[in-house]
Amino acid sequence: MAVVAGEVEHRVRIEAPPDIVFSFFVDEAKHPRWMGRTALLDPRPGGVYRVEVTDTHTVVGEYVVVEPPTQVVFTWGFEGNAHAPPGSSTVTVRLEADGAATLVSLNHRGLPHPLLSGHDEGWQGYLEQLGEAAGTAD
Question: Between 20 and 30 A from 42 (CA), which of 24, 26, 86, 135?
Answer without folding.
Answer: 135
